[in-house]
Structure formats: structure tokens, C-alpha cells
Specification:
- By secondary structure, this protein is mostly helical.
- It has one domain.
- The chain is about 75% helix and about 0% strand.
- The longest helix is centred in the middle third of the chain and has 68 residues.
- The chain is rod-shaped, with a radius of gyration of 39 Å.
- The N and C termini lie far apart (about 135 Å).
Length: about 90
């Protein structure tokens, strides 16, 4: 039995099918970008929280240092007042 030319099966994709495939690939790429971006956001949030904690500890240390400096200045003032500010009594 002989096949006629009019009954050939066309295995090529239509232009519409090619556009759908390209669109699906594009969506897959966007999904990958979104997943990567979300992972980056989680990492950034973690780093920001660590930075906030570090800044709070630094501020507390700075406050302690300021209070120690104030006590030192008061102590030095009392010492100088008792000794006549370096002048002979």
C-alpha cells in the first residue's frame, strides 16, 4: 500500500507550540530567580539580626565605658581638690 503525499504526518511544532515552550522556559527561569532571591532575603535578614544584636552590645559597652570615664573624672577631681590642684598647701 502506497502513502500519498497529502497524508504525510507533520512532526514539526507549530509556531504557537514554540511560543508556549519558550514561555514555559521563561517562567522556569523566573521561578529560579525568585527562589534565589528568597534565599538571599533570608540570609540578609539573618545577617541584619546579627548586626542589630552586635550594635546593641556595642551600645551597652559604650554606655559602661562612659560611666567608667565619668567615675574616673570624678575621682580625679576629688584627688586634685584634696591635693590643692597641684599647688603647695
Amino acid at each position: 500500500m502506497r502513502r500519498s503525499a497529502s497524508k504525510k504526518v507533520d512532526l514539526r511544532l507549530s509556531e504557537h507550540d514554540e511560543k508556549i515552550i519558550a514561555h514555559d522556559k521563561s517562567l522556569a527561569g523566573i521561578r529560579t530567580i525568585l527562589r534565589t532571591g528568597m534565599k538571599m532575603l533570608v540570609e540578609m535578614e539573618s545577617k541584619m539580626n546579627a548586626l542589630i544584636d552586635s550594635e546593641a552590645r556595642f551600645y551597652d559597652s559604650l554606655q559602661e565605658l562612659a560611666q567608667a570615664q565619668k567615675r574616673t573624672e570624678e575621682s580625679l577631681k576629688r584627688f586634685l581638690d584634696r591635693s590643692g590642684n597641684g599647688h603647695g598647701s
